């Protein structure tokens, strides 16, 4: 029997259905996030047996390098492929690098085995709860109204951004939401203080004192977690903060190395780990973080600031872990509605009336690109 081999790798552009509009993200004040339906691209990994794996599109500048490392290879050697590409394939833009290739390889492997990825990884949950991850700061009244609508739609949890100039403004937003919805929905909070690895980033930069005082107020308001209250490498201060408040501290989305998560766990930096598949080495890297989290008695809720196939991969990961409480879906309607990010799929992800997302049951990622959108 001829072994399975990679024969070609293609970058396929997708047609844009609609440019919905722009949103100013709380983590990049003054910038903009353009929301589209369709558009972008996918990577396709072809094999000698006619099985094709798909993933989020990569930067075109690295396509030749990816081909050089993978064509002629067995796709099942994911550990080797992830390690080599992490070392050799450089220059890709954020969210368009080797992790996209890793997702496509796993999709291919799932299809070759005839199993959805979450089952291949040992999971048994066929649906997981999602949380609506807000994008904008907005006003207390508007955020309260939006979250009240989420409650009516069945969502179980939401994440608010608090990146105002003053702590009073931040807390006012959370208080308004809590007053509007009571305990009908879990409220997570993201301070976005770990965007930069240097000593500058857009917006207000918190001191330890502000982080501690804010955390105590959020704990009083019954928030589920406080995310990224300090810089990403401030492990000592993060551990101090974590020890000072009962509410879980969460983070890790911008930390790319496995060794960093080992240090976080050993120092008790976070109660909830949030590795990002598009920052690390895709599912191959995140599965290791999941094992580490379990060994240390911690929860894992992978971060995902993108949409589309990357989120689908995270859905399978979340469903494979018993200690993963929620799937993150960027959702700030109407412009930032989560549905726009899955418009390229024939079988898009949908949040049901109980706040759950069903895991696709087809092999691999289990989703199919709408052929009408392929350029």
Task: Provide structural commentary.
The protein is an alpha/beta fold and 375 residues long. It folds into two domains: 6-115, Enolase-like, domain 1; 119-371, Enolase-like C-terminal domain (TIM Barrel). Helices cover 33% and strands 18% of the residues. It is built from eleven helices and 14 strands. Strand 10 (249-251), helix 9 (258-266) and strand 11 (272-273) form a beta-alpha-beta unit. Helix 1 (63-70) packs antiparallel against helix 2, helix 6 packs parallel to helix 7 (208-220) and helix 9 (258-266) runs parallel beside helix 10 (283-295). The longest helix has 16 residues, at 98-113. The protein is globular and about 65 Å long.
What layout of secondary structure does this protein have?
Blueprint: E1 6-13, E2 16-23, E3 33-38, E4 41-47, E5 52-56, H1 63-70, H2 78-88, H3 98-113, H4 117-120, E6 127-133, H5 140-153, E7 157-161, H6 167-181, E8 186-190, H7 208-220, E9 225-227, H8 235-244, E10 249-251, H9 258-266, E11 272-273, H10 283-295, E12 299-300, H11 309-320, E13 327-330, E14 356-358
Parallel strand pairs: 6-7, 6-13, 7-8, 8-9, 9-10, 10-11, 11-12
Antiparallel strand pairs: 1-4, 2-3, 4-5, 6-14
Helix pairs in contact: 1-2, 2-3, 5-6, 6-7, 9-10
